[in-house]
Amino acid sequence: MTEPGVVRVEGWAHAPFEAIADVFARVVAEQGCGTAALTVYMDGHPVVDLTHADHPRDARQLLFSVSKGVSAIAAQHAHAHGRLDLDAPISDVWPAMRRAATRHVTTRHVLCHQAGLPLVDRQLTVEDHVAGNLEAALERQQPYWEPGTKHGYHAITYGTLLDGVFRRALGTSVAEYIHTHIRQPLGLDLSLGAPPAHSHNVLPLRTRPPMRTPLQLTHQARLLNATGLGLLDDPSVFNRPDVLAAPWPATNIVAGARDLARLYAATVGPVDGTRLLDTENTTDLARTRSIGMDEILGEASHFGSGVQRPTTRLPLLGPASYGHDGHAGSLALADPQLSISMAFTTNLCPPVGGASAGALTLVAAARHCLSA
Fold first, then answer.
1. Of 311, 314, 341, 241, which is closest to residue 38 (Cα–Cα)?
2. 69, 85, 169, 247: which one has the fewest Cβ atoms less than 10 Å from its Cβ?
3. Of 113, 115, 138, which Cα lies nearest the Cα of 128?
4. What does the DSSP assignment read for 335-371?
5. Tell me: the pLDDT tens digits for 117-130?
6. Phi-psi category of 324—alpha, beta or left, where left has phi over 0 and alpha has psi -120 to 50?
7. Radius of gyration (Cα) for the chain, nearest Å?
8. What CA–CA distances, in Å, run from 368 to 11, 100, 194, 315, 319?
9. What share of the chain is helix, strand, coil (3-state, %, to 5)?
10. Helix, strand or coil for residue 303?
11. Is 176 strand, coil or helix?
């Protein structure tokens, strides 16, 4: 498929999404560089599969906080199968958390950003993160608010806390759980981290300078920067082999649009006979847990049990939608009422964090196609 005067796009788009191919071509053209892919599933089947012509068919990217949605689905899956009680205190399995300040923190609090542990009061280097030193720092950290009373985005600590619970309660990491219970049943080329032996098809991240706005002078902006714990100052650090290999549940999902859309489709219905979550657990995953002013972001946010729900900034497909965007501009989501899932991936980091303008444009275009 070629769009004259814009960019060369490969793939197909079936009814009712034929018009989205032109929008995708323009989104890639407006990026100016980098590459992208878009996949949409409807009723458990792919109906859109588009890539930039320079995007290798099997290419994957590291997708930052898109990871949180995938890890949340893994946690809900473990809960659904009786392997993990999301509402039990993590101190039941994590002795170091049996301090007065943290003994009532639950896994649900972690997933919906209510744990009060969005950062730690010590400097951490990239090497500290690779060595796993954040976990010990969290075991000593006093919460920034009483757990369960407020919410604020846990950009990095979300993953460390969740992985700590999985390893102690299930005897396996989040990465291993995803491999066994999500990747293998659905036949996905998706993983938390990509060690050198498995990184041949991973596109390197490309970055643009961050935008400078008055928001960066606010208390919330300084706090948000701090929650990156030294990892998000320069996203290109994730191209380092040791960082790319790290199986971090908050940031390091390595995937392509096809696999993400397929995964999310399996949370709303069967895909080739496999369904990850039944209706009850999909509802539990998406049920509003945190909504309103975010203590870290300084704006309204809306979370289910680890997935983002619609907001003004991120409207998704509609009021029933859930998913997660990422620092590098990508986005994956599902809507059980529409029986739709979609994923947009790009290796070009936008100058501001979260879903890129192109990702939001494509979601709007999908809404238009559904209503036309």
1. 341
2. 85
3. 138
4. ETTTTEEEEEEESEE-SSSSS-HHHHHHHHHHHHHHH
5. 999 999 999 999 99
6. beta
7. 19
8. 20, 51, 36, 13, 15
9. 35, 20, 45
10. strand
11. helix
CATH fold of 9-76+174-371, please?
Beta-lactamase (3.40.710)
Is this prediction's pTM over 0.85? Answer: yes
Cα–Cα distance, 213 to 218 (Å, whole number): 10
Nearest to residue 195, comparing CAs of 262, 260, 145, 243? 243
For the chain, the domains span 9-76+174-371
The token pair at 152 is 């604020």
H/E element holding 9? strand 9-13
- Residue 143, number of CB atoms within 10 A of its CB: 19
Which backbone phi and psi does 122 adopt, to 5 degrees? -155, 150
β-bridge pairing 348-349 and 206-207? parallel
pLDDT tens sequence across 291-348: 999 999 989 999 999 999 999 999 999 999 999 999 889 999 999 999 999 999 998 8
**CA-angle at 265, arms to 259 and 268, nearest 5°:** 155
- The per-residue pLDDT for range 206-264, each reduced to its tens digit, is 886 654 444 444 555 567 678 888 888 888 899 999 999 999 999 999 999 999 999 99
Beta bridge partners of 292: 301
- Is the CB of residue 113 less than 8 Å from the CB of residue 152? yes
Structure token digits, residue 216 = 């960066």
Instruction: Name the residue type at position 245.
Output: A
